[in-house]
Amino acid sequence: MVTDHPIGKTDQPNGTKITFEPDGTVFKNYHFIPQYLENQIWNYAFLNAGLTINFNGQKYHSEHGLRDLLERKTNAEELRYPIIHLRGEDIEIAFSHSNQYGEEYYSFVNGQYTTQGGTHLQAFREALVKTVREFFGKNFDAADVRASIVGSIAVRVQEPVFESQTKTKLGSLNVAPEGATMRSFVGDYVKKVLDDYLHKHPDAAEALLKRINQSERERKEISGIKKLANERAKKANLHNKKLRDCRIHFNDAKAGDKKENTMIFITEGDSASGSITKSRDVSSQAVFSLRGKPLNCFGLTKKVVYENEEFNLLQHALNIEDGLEGLRYRKIVIATDADVDGMHIRLLLLTFFLQFFPDLVKQGHVYILETPLFRVRNKKATHYCYDEEEKQKAMKKLGGKPEITRFKGLGEISPDEFGNFIGEDIRLDPVILQKETKIEDLLSFFMGKNTPKRQSFIIDNLRVEKDLVEEEVV
Fold first, then answer.
1. Residue 150: which of 178, 128, 181, 177 has the closest Cα?
2. What is the pLDDT of residue 472?
3. Which string of DSSP letters, residue by residue, matches 172-190?
4. Separation of first and last alpha carbons in the chain
5. Which residue ranges of the chain lie beneath pLDDT 70?
6. d(Cα 39, Cα 34) in Å, to the nearest integer?
């Protein structure tokens, strides 16, 4: 490490200072997102219980490892029983069941966050079902055991083998400690330790059984309509006009690191989808076109996903009906107009994902596409501006009286221009949930029926373009 500062005396303990500055030629339009950095730092704290990390004046400390991780990621009021925390020499597991839909996992290998899971996570999912079946002496459906689970697993492996250079998924050639396969290592540990735990904590065992029985009832209630909906979706997929698919997919093991660039744009109407479709990269970018505004699904059961043709086709396009393991696109990009209707559609889509597939958001797969609001140009140069501040700077740079165009909708941007906004210079805002965010309360406030409270909030926080311009001038 090279430093320009002389080494001197200090009261601080010995250590290494590392400075990282992204290369602008490699990382296009980069900017640091505090919430994302905070999540990364917290992961390091959870995986090293007892360690204190100081960052920008804030301390990050975890005393109980993965148990603390789940407490941060979940709402304690929604958990059906206290978090089960199991810790061994080279393995640590924590899990509980909540009232949300789907399965939600956080998996790690040697401190690396494996967002796509891998053999260690698969082994845990299998071992959990097998142990629960044997404990209760009942042949539960695996989906009923794992429905609404939120869990985390961390293992230590010598010379781990990942499926890609991004190290987001553990491969199948790994040898666990003492020469065991990953499947047998995790399976034997879960079978012994979890079985002991359930015997010692009958209240947790009873609550777990109730959650499994509830999941079974819910599954049987929608089984009939689910079958019909899936049959319709299969027929529609043969000639699905809503989906313009790409060649490479996120769940394709043979795609290597190329799958990290896969994305699907969810657009409103044919005009917007037309521009994106003509300018996209057909190898890695897909387009799904909505027909008008989708249904507000807040407070509805998952039955609506199968009853509503558009929602059903969307979940099949993403391949998330049975969890995220088969997710076909690394990034799900909501691409709507920057007007009132566009914002409303964005909220309706986020409600759909948070209500039925919250792990898509929590694992960083959902993004908002930023598109320019203004085009400022003269005969020599053209600048695309994403806000009023950029517009003012562009006008000052060009001088004179440049031509200014205000884009009101995506359909107004030509395909040739659109190619500049979804290529290597694409601007995406990840949808990140804060630690204190409770999904139920969030959706209830913005999408529920508390009209007076929401109306007051809008009035108190309303800012129009004229006000923003005056702020810039001041």
1. 128
2. 43
3. S--B-GGG-BHHHHHHHHH
4. 44
5. 1-8, 10, 12, 15, 173-179, 233-241, 271, 435-436, 463-474
6. 9
CA 33 vs. chain centroid, Å, equals 15
324: closest CA among 401, 250, 254, 392? 250
**Domain topology for 66-219:** Ribosomal Protein S5; domain 2 (3.30.230)
Bridge partners, residue 332, by sequence? 264, 366
Provide the residue ranges of all domains of the chain, joining segments of one domain with +.
Answer: 66-219, 240-371+407-437, 374-404
Three-class SS of 70-123:
HHHHCCHHHCCCCCEEEECCCEEEEEEECCCCCCEEEEEECCEECCCCEHHHHH
- Check: CB of residue 407 under 8 Å from CB of residue 420: no
Give 122's strand partners.
none
pLDDT digits (tens, 9 = 90+) for 123-165: 999 999 999 999 999 999 999 999 999 999 999 988 888 877 7
25, amino acid identity: T
Domain 240-371+407-437 matching CATH 3.40.50.670: the answer reads yes
Model pTM? Answer: 0.75
Inter-CA distances, 60 with 70, 81, 446, Å: 15, 26, 31
Strand spans (E) along 234-365: 243-244, 263-268, 285-290, 331-335
| Cα(236)–Cα(35) distance, integer angstroms | 39
